[in-house]
Automatic annotation (TrEMBL):
Gene Ontology molecular function terms on file: hydrolase activity; metal ion binding
Name recorded for this polypeptide: Metallo-beta-lactamase
Record SUPFAM superfamilies: Metallo-hydrolase/oxidoreductase
Record flagged with keyword Metal-binding: yes
Taxonomic classification: Archaea, Methanobacteriati, Methanobacteriota, Stenosarchaea group, Halobacteria
Cofactor: Zn(2+)
Domain of life of the native organism: Archaea
Domain Metallo-beta-lactamase residue range list: 23-183
Length: 211
């Protein structure tokens, strides 16, 4: 099974939910235009996609860490989608900037620049759902009900991450009820409280993975 659909008016499936390797979540959103948010690092991603859709119109990258983009070239070769990212990258992606409006699965989303875990990190905010990449996750090995991306890796910065979460909260409609993070389970419910809890933990300097 490829993951649960949390939102009645969007068909969102995590294609890497059952992966046997370490990978980011890769969300297929089916609609007027089939879209993928991140491609992950799971072998067989093209076969999994082809079981779901005949065409793929677009790929949206939250950031270019290997666990999020490892299978990008194979997906591009199979489907020739338009790739959107914060920078052009080796595949000459369409560059997105803060405040841009994009269509993911036929639904409108706003691009929010959210560096801190990675310099090129983006989140995608819609009326009912948010794709947060690694800036905020619902639950992981560090924290439950509101965690944040690592800042102890090259290119990351805790203060910048906190400011990015503040920017995300400032752009989050009250109607958002589904959170699709880069790792771990998706969440349906009070999304704002989950993000605020993650922000508080990051701002207090709580270590992501205490020794």
């Amino acid at each position: 099974m490829t993951g649960a659909v949390l939102q009645a008016d969007m068909d969102v499936r995590n294609l890497t939910a059952d992966a046997a390797v370490f990978t980011a979540n890769a969300y297929l959103i089916q609609g007027e235009r089939n879209s993928l948010v991140d491609v992950g690092a799971m072998p067989g991603m093209v076969d999994t996609l082809q079981e779901q859709v005949a065409t793929l119109d677009s790929v949206f990258l939250t950031h270019r860490h290997d666990d999020h983009v490892d299978r990008l070239e194979t997906v591009r070769a199979a489907f020739d989608p338009t790739v959107y990212a914060a920078d052009s990258g080796p595949e000459a992606a369409t560059v997105l900037a803060d405040g841009d409006q994009v269509s993911i699965g036929g639904e409108a989303f706003e691009v929010v620049e959210t560096p801190g875990h990675a310099p090129d990190h983006l989140a995608f905010v819609g009326d009912m759902a948010v794709f947060t990449g690694d800036i905020v996750v619902y639950s992981d090995e560090a924290f439950e009900d509101g965690s944040f991306g690592r800042t102890d890796i090259p290119g990351a910065d805790r203060e910048t991450l906190v400011k990015s979460i503040d920017r995300l909260l400032g752009r989050l409609p009250a109607t958002v009820k589904s959170l699709y993070p880069g790792h771990g389970p998706a969440f349906a419910g009070d999304v704002r409280t989950v993000i605020e809890r993650a922000r508080g933990r990051a701002a207090r300097g709580e270590p992501k993975y205490p020794e």
